[in-house]
Design brief:
The protein contains 13 helices and 18 strands. By secondary structure, it is an alpha+beta fold. The chain has 2 domains: 3-168 and 327-386, Peroxisomal Thiolase, Chain A, domain 1; 170-324, Peroxisomal Thiolase, Chain A, domain 1 (3-Layer(aba) Sandwich), CATH 3.40.47. It binds acetoacetyl-coenzyme A. It comes from Weissella coleopterorum. The active site is at 79 (proton donor/acceptor), 111 (acyl-thioester intermediate), 233 (proton donor/acceptor). It is an enzyme of class 2 (transferase).
Amino acid sequence: MQVGIDQISFFSPNYYIDMVDLALARDQDPNKYLVGIGQSQQAVIPPTQDAVTMAANAAEPILTDLDRQQLDLIIFATESGVDHSKSAAAYLQRLLNIQPFARTIEIKQACYAGTYGLMQARDYVELNPTKKVLVVASDIARYGLRTGGEVTQGGGAVAMMVTANPRIMTLERDNQFMTKEVMDFWRPTYATEARVDGKFSNNVYQEFFVELWERYRKVTGKDINDFKAFVFHLPYTKMGLKGLRQILPEADADQQARLLAQFEASRLDNKKFGNLYTGSLYLSLLSLLRHSTDLVAGDRIGLFSYGSGAEGEFYSGIIQADYQQMLVPNQLDDLLAERIKLSIPEYEAMFQATLNGAADRQLDGAADPALYVLTGLQQEQRQYEKQ
Ligand code: CAA
C-alpha cells in the first residue's frame, strides 16, 4: 500500500513588501537581496494573523464535512507557537469544527518539524489505512527590523492531507535523518525574534545536506540520475541553490540543466512569500507542482528538510498521475493578486504592532479579509474568530 500527500493547501496573509524597497531603505544593493539572497518579495504578517489562524486558513479549503466528522489526528508543526503549554492543534480542532474524538498535538524542532509530522502521519495511515491525517506547518519568520536576517523573514502555512493511495505524491520509505546539537539559530522562550549565527547556519545546512545525500546514496543505491527534481527547505531561495550545487557535479551537463530548471520552478513562490520555517520545504514542493512544465506520474522528487539546532532529513516521493487536479484551483495566484504592498515605514509599524504581552487588547479582525482571524486578547486568552 502506498501512503502520502493527497491534498496540499497554502495560506499567507494579505500584505507584502518588495525587496527592492527594503534594500534601498537599508542602504543595500537591491541585487544582493534579489540575486544574492534570491528573494523578490516578503509576506508581512498583520497582528490579526498568527500560527493558528494561518494554519486554519490553509486547512479550510481541503476539508470536507466528512473529514470534519472523521479526522482523528491533527499534527501541528510550528516554531512560532502561541502558548508554551496548550497545543496550537487544539485551537485548530475547534476552529475547523473537527469532531472531538481526535488527537491534537503540536510538535517542534525548528523548521524540520513539518517533515516529522508528515512521517508520523504516514506511519499512522499505514497502520490505519482508512484514516486521513491533517498535517499543518505554520510559522512567522521574525528576526527583527534592521537585522541581518530581516531579508529572510516571511510567513505562512501549508496544510497537507495524508492518506492511503494519495493523488499528489507518495512518500517513499527511504528516509535518512540526522541530529547534531549546534547553536546556529534558536529562539529563547522569552524572545519573539530569532537569534542566529547566519554564516554558521548556512554552513551547517550544507553540511547536513551533503552528509545525508551521501548516506542516502550508500543505503539506497540510487544516484542523482534517479531524480527528476530536488526540493529544499528554503529559508531564502539562494540557500537551496547552494545545496543543489554541492551535488550537481555528480550529473552530466544535460541532467544538471534539467535539475536547475526544476529548481527554478520550485523556488518561484518562495521568492514571493519568504521564509515559512516549517512550511518552507512544502511551499517549495507546491511551487514545483505549480510551475514545472514536465512532471509526470512516476517522477521521483528528492526532499531535503532542515531545522536548525540541528536536524535534517532527506527522503523521496513519487509524483502521482492526478497531482494537478488535486491542487486548490488558483489558490496562490489569487493570494498574490489580492495582496497589498506596504511601504517600508508601514511594514515597520505592522511588525511592531504584533500582539505581544498580557494586557487586554482588541484587534480589528474585520480589516483582515482572511476567514480565520485573531481578534484580540482578553484575560490573557487569545480570541479567535471565523468571519
Ligand atoms: N549582487 C549579487 N549578489 C550579491 C550582491 C550583489 N550586489 N551583494 C552580495 N551578494 C551575495 C553575496 O555574495 C552572498 O552570496 P553567497 O552566499 O553565495 O556567497 C549573498 O549575496 C549574501 O551576502 P552576505 O553573505 O554578505 O549576506 P549577509 O551577511 O547579509 O547574510 C544571511 C546573509 C546569513 C543569509 C542572513 O540574511 C541571515 O543570517 N539570515 C538568517 C539565517 C538563515 O536564513 N540561515 C539559513 C540556514 S538556517 C535554516 O535554514 C533554518 C531557518 O529557516 C532559519
